[in-house]
Design brief:
The structure holds two protein chains of two kinds. By secondary structure, chain A is an all-alpha fold. Chain A contains four helices and no strands. In chain A, α1 packs antiparallel against α2 and α2 runs antiparallel to α3. The longest helix of chain A is centred in the N-terminal third of the chain and has 47 residues. Chain A is elongated and about 75 Å long. By secondary structure, chain B is an all-alpha fold. Chain B contains four helices and no strands. The longest helix of chain B has 27 residues. Classes of the chains: A mainly alpha, B mainly alpha. At the A-B interface, α1, α2 and α3 of A face α1, α2 and α3 of B.
């Protein structure tokens, strides 16, 4: 009887451990697949978007979100302080720097005169844009 | 490392490789310097994610530090390229305004919208 209950306890403990490990692995795999899919979508947007500016937003948003999900997968998998700190550092750094880099490239190429697609609805940086000139007078240079 | 994790990291690696191939395609035929810079940025971002996958599949958390360093280098490189683009505007051979208008290759555009 005593050995029976002890065996049941051990079984329970191993079952709990196994299910926790399975949960961790499942969460890690789901995050891995989601992040890799977002990276693939960034590549698809980069190949198929008609315009430099739309390509910039495809690369920045999809790629950054995908890499953040992959970092979350690594954090969930390792679950140590070291991995949590370095993974969160990478996520924060990526989320801070990717929009800045994209903005620098977009601003430089707009000043260079890279044309937008013909299907573009509004370009607020142009002086002869209708919505901008209706709201405030154009700057005299 | 369990079976589930092995399979999912293989699938993730294949998806990332496909994304990298599409980015390299844009680097090869992008009609301007800025397109190439942005495609290179995407490829570097995917490389950061690939090092995270590598960290998971080898079980070494040291590779996560590589992600941080790679992100730093990528940001500095992209901003330097953007500054180069800004200071030499229009006077290099890589920029052709006729090419950079980039007629849509994926779908036929409606000619007259009005």
């Amino acid at each position: 009887m005593c050995s029976n209950t002890k065996g049941a306890l051990v079984n329970d403990a191993t079952l709990t451990l196994l299910s926790a490990s399975l949960l961790q692995d499942g969460a890690t795999s789901a995050l891995l697949i989601c992040g890799a899919t977002f990276c693939l979508l960034g590549g698809v947007g980069m190949a198929r978007m008609p315009d430099l500016y739309t390509r910039i937003q495809a690369a920045t948003k999809a790629g950054t979100l995908g890499v953040a999900l992959l970092m979350l997968a690594a954090i969930v998998h390792f679950a140590t302080l070291d991995a949590i700190v370095s993974g969160s550092l990478a996520i924060v750094f990526l989320f801070l720097t990717a929009p800045v880099a994209a903005h620098v490239i977009a601003r430089a190429s707009h000043r260079m005169g890279v044309q937008a697609s013909r299907r573009t609805v509004i370009d607020q940086l142009n002086d002869d844009s209708p919505s901008l000139s209706s709201h405030d007078p154009p700057q005299t240079r | 490392m369990s079976d589930l994790l092995t399979i999912s990291s293989w699938i993730a690696g294949v998806l990332m490789a496909l994304g990298t191939l599409l980015g390299i395609l844009r680097i090869a035929r992008g009609p301007g310097l800025a397109d190439r810079i942005i495609a290179l940025d995407l490829v570097g971002t995917i490389a950061i994610g690939a090092s995270a996958i590598f960290a998971i599949s080898t079980g070494e958390p040291v590779y996560l530090l590589m992600c941080v360093v790679l992100g730093l280098l990528l940001f500095v490189g992209t901003v330097a390229a953007g500054y180069y683009l800004l200071t030499t505007k229009g006077d290099n051979i890589m920029h052709d305004p006729k090419l950079s208008s980039s007629p849509i290759q994926c779908a036929p555009t409606p000619k007259a919208r009005s």
